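Notebook, bench 3.
Goal today: get a predicted structure for Copper amine oxidase-like N-terminal domain-containing protein from Neobacillus rhizosphaerae so we can plan the truncation constructs. The sequence was checked against the plasmid map this morning, with no discrepancies at the termini. Length recorded as 284 residues. Pasting the sequence as submitted so the record is complete.
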Amino acid sequence: MKIRWTLTIFIVLLITIVPFASAAAPFKVFVNGQPIFGPTSIVQFIGGSPYVAIDEISSELKLNVEYDGKKKTLHISNIGEPQSEVVATLKKAKATLYATKREGNLEKLRLEIDGKIRWFPDWKNSDFPSFGPRLFFDDLNQDGKEELVILLTTGHGTGIMITEAHVLQKTKTNIGEIYEEKLIDNPVAIINKNVKTKKISNDQVEITIGKKKINDTFYEYLKHETIDFSVYKNELVVYMSGQLSPSTEGGILITYQFKDNMYQSKKIEYLKKRPDFIMESSFQ
């Protein structure tokens, strides 16, 4: 008897609901204020959220959609917009860096590492081939795991060379291990705090680091027109000098250490000439 009642209620509900569902008006879809005239209803609800097939609205969004069932790939691109391209790779890190070229810069940088994607919309690099992004993969913090270091050139020209560094460190989270960016102490702030200069003649400056005093041949030494990051002997370093042309005689080398969850200066020293760092290739 209980089974018969249950079946009767189900049939009544089905008869009641189906006419209402079939009579319901389809959703109207608007893209940039314009109505989309597709099938009777191009909206489907999955898990309570509305979904629309991308090929139904691709022309209105000016998208080019290419689907390959055999390769199981879906390519979506903005028609007329610059396309993203590979700008650096590092095989031993399984890392590939993508960017879009726009007005002399690489923008919209995207990193693929360990099969995962991370976006860095605020990063920029010159699109000049000689100043492309450089990648390093070394154990900077001595924890037995390599960190990915990405060096970007943000400014260059006659007498100018400005780079910035980004260190991505593998970190455990509730969704697994991810590469998390760690803060790097600003090298200009480090020098302003720890290095003193005094003009002693028209073309001489006295540089004081701690108890050491050194003379350099150009008095505008701390203009910071050379800020060149690199990785040297498993350490993050940056070389800074007044300018390249006419050049200062030497420069300041800052060696970083990982401390208090960030990269801070470990050593500050004056070098008579620019160090010859081993420049790691961006494509290897």
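Residues 1-23 have pLDDT under 50 and may be disordered. The longest helix spans residues 2-23.
Flagging this for group meeting.
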